[in-house]
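ok so for the tutorial part 2 we go from a plain amino acid sequence to predicted structure tokens. step 1 is just haveing the sequence, like this:
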Amino acid sequence: IAILKVSSNLTEEEIRDIYDDFKRQCPSGRMHKNQFLKCSKAFMESEDEKTDVPHVMFSVFDKNRDGTIDFSEFVLIIAMGNKEDLDSRLELVFEILDMSNDGRISYDEMMDFLEITKKYQATGSVTNFVPETVAKDMFAMFDLNNEQKISKQQFVEGCKKSKDLSDFFDSW
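step 2 — the prediction. this is what the tokens look like for a chain of 172 residues:
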């Protein structure tokens, strides 16, 4: 709970309430995508009905690609909407991108995230992008090749220096 409190900016009581509801809906402790999509409507309201953000979020957090997420991953998805300052939101996006959990983002991790995002992007979205271009631009900003990795500090600073990157990653 302590880790989730820090990561999500939720109170212990809110986390326990979410957990109770999660366990009621998912007694196995794993939430399937269709369950997530149904309950995501409550915390991912959007003015654009065509938004595919819930699909992308589920796919990004389903790191082992088994079609389910656990409670901690579910809370972190909810936390995405609770981060108020840009640095905190970018740090959370970094955590999502760091699929290997080594504190650094590889080119492949960046591409995986961007390709998932592109796959579920709403038709006609104004945020049309080329995943390879975004990844190359981010790595080039720090004179890194695709065999090297970006640190959290580099990611946050790089996104803040580039309005396009900042807008792209802050939309999460």
